[in-house]
Design a protein that fits this description.
78% helix; single chain; 438 residues
């Protein structure tokens, strides 16, 4: 056994993680290697021997069963043409607004996110339809891509959200309460994004030329009928949760079955080729997410053994600062980390460290969870590792990445502004859970 004190072992582990992230190693490998190294340095062979049992217990968490199920819902809906129909429906109803195509993109991304909970799916599914439609109408490419990349991240905040499921698995906070906590901030953020598009389209119409299309009430109703089955999916999932009929995990299973029915009966898109694509992609994404969960747990175990959460909590508690100033500082640190680490890894690593810090300050862990997920929304749209940026690049390869990044900068400002408002007014996140969950 190597004789290293826990603090030194944790520092070496963190340094190894930083180096591996810097050289672009896969994050689950970086977290796993750094965790195993730290365990060996602190506990030697004993630490490594307890690892398999600990990992099995962590991944056996019933809450995590919802992860592949919600991914399955998103993958199933992605082959149906639902993104196209949602975009057309939103545009049909909103065509009189300045920047109507951009506003329709926000609406369709938010709605698709409320069905799948996966931001990358929203960007890919809606972006394939929305970006060509906007650029063909003379929209500035950066403006067009920004109207998809940032709203695509709403899936992380509007339930059902995979990030809330992971946060619940780590902290034990009710998934149903977290889902409810994300509804009001998610809707506010969607309205802010739509308002920004309308304002820019009004003041600088060269960015988003006004549409001359007008639709009759008959056309509007027919467009809505096309997406009603998919909208019922949202009611099916959330209704099952908040009526007490099913847990969030059970509701995910009901939603997956409903998604298959919609794909097969309404869209007639459940061919053998599409079924294979759905299942293969679901397995790939689920394995990637759960591998990160397992690796992050190993790394977190090192931090716990070194008493990092306790030490940080004691240090912060000793600061002569107002608790809300401390929370603002935490938010700024999370934003900086989000530029370097992917959303799921960041959540799984920082949650066990920060929740013991914020609770003694009198902050609600549910409220903090919503703030954390808003930070993760920023993480997926900020360079250099913002996954939504690269998802958009794959959808619109002809548009330079620099223009895609330029297009999301105003949305980063909007999200940061709302984040600061929520730090000052916690009720934005906590009111609805108190009504729906108690």
């Amino acid at each position: 056994m190597i004789d290293v004190d826990p603090g030194t072992g944790a520092l070496i582990s963190v340094a190894a993680l930083a180096i591996l992230i810097f050289v672009r190693a896969p994050l689950f490998l970086a977290l796993g290697f750094a965790g195993v190294l730290g365990l060996y340095l602190i506990r030697g062979d004993t630490g490594l021997q307890t690892l398999p049992l600990s990992l099995t217990a962590q991944l056996a968490n019933f809450t995590l069963v919802a992860v592949p199920l919600y991914i399955l819902i998103g993958e199933t809906l992605s082959v149906t043409g639902l993104g196209r129909d949602l975009f057309k429906t939103c545009y049909t109803w909103l065509s009189r607004l300045p920047g109507s195509l951009g506003v329709a993109s926000v609406g369709s991304c938010a709605t698709f996110g409320a069905m799948s909970g996966v931001s990358l799916s929203g960007v890919a599914v809606v972006g394939r339809m929305a970006v060509p439609a906007m650029t063909e109408r003379g929209y500035k490419p950066s403006f067009a891509t920004g109207a998809v990349v940032a709203p695509g991240a709403l899936a992380m905040l509007i339930p059902p959200s995979l990030m809330f499921i992971l946060y619940s698995a780590v902290t034990g906070v009710s998934v149903a309460a977290l889902f409810a906590g994300g509804i009001v901030p998610g809707l506010l953020l969607a309205l802010l994004m739509a308002g920004y598009i309308i304002t820019v389209a009004t003041l600088r119409p060269e960015n988003a030329p006004r549409s001359d299309d007008r639709f009759s009430w008959d056309e509007k109703v027919r467009s809505l009928v096309r997406v009603i089955p998919a909208l019922l999916l949202i009611v099916c999932i959330l209704g099952a949760i908040y009526t007490g009929f099913a847990t969030p995990t059970e509701a995910a299973a009901v939603g997956a079955l409903a998604a298959f029915v919609i794909a097969a009966v309404v869209y007639r898109a459940l061919s053998w080729a599409n079924l294979r694509r759905i299942l293969v992609s679901t397995v790939q994404v689920s394995c990637a997410v759960l591998a990160i969960v397992a690796a992050a747990f190993v790394f977190t175990k090192v931090l716990v053994l070194a008493r990092v959460p306790t030490t940080v909590a004691e240090f912060v508690g000793g600061l002569d600062l107002h608790p809300f100033l401390i929370m603002v500082a935490i938010m700024l640190v999370l934003i900086a980390l989000g530029c370097l680490v992917d959303a799921a890894s960041l959540l799984l690593v920082v949650t066990p460290v920060l929740v013991p810090v914020v609770e003694p300050l009198g902050f609600d862990p549910l409220w903090f969870g919503v703030l954390l997920v808003m930070n993760l929304e920023l993480a997926v749209i900020t360079p250099p590792v913002g996954l939504n940026l690269f998802a958009m690049k794959s959808v619109a390869p002809e548009i330079p990445l620099s223009q895609i990044i330029r297009g999301v900068i105003p949305y980063i400002v909007l999200e940061f502004a709302l984040l600061m408002v929520m730090v000052a007014v916690p009720e934005i996140a906590t009111w609805l859970p108190s009504v729906l969950v108690g």
